[in-house]
Amino acid sequence: MNDDKTKGPGSDMLSGVSKSSRDGSGALDKETQTKIGQQLRAMYDEVVRQGVPDRFADLLKELERREDQEPKS
Length: 73
Prior knowledge:
Oligomer: single chain
Shape: elongated
Number of helices: 2
Structural class: mainly alpha
Order of helices and strands: HH
Helix content: 40-55%
Radius of gyration: 21 Å
Distance between the termini: 62 Å
Strand content: under 5%
Mean pLDDT: 79
Number of strands: 0
């Protein structure tokens, strides 16, 4: 039975991991861990390259401006 309810973002990352990549404890072998690490870094690098959207940066500047205007106690 295929339970698609458990699938979420990135769930296909382990789709190529065979049961032989895991020991009896459920841990992944070094090669599989390395592959997952490389995929995570590639995904993270893509997010970093996108940068902060202008609207988000504007909201942060507005928040800082308001905090500077608040009286200090």
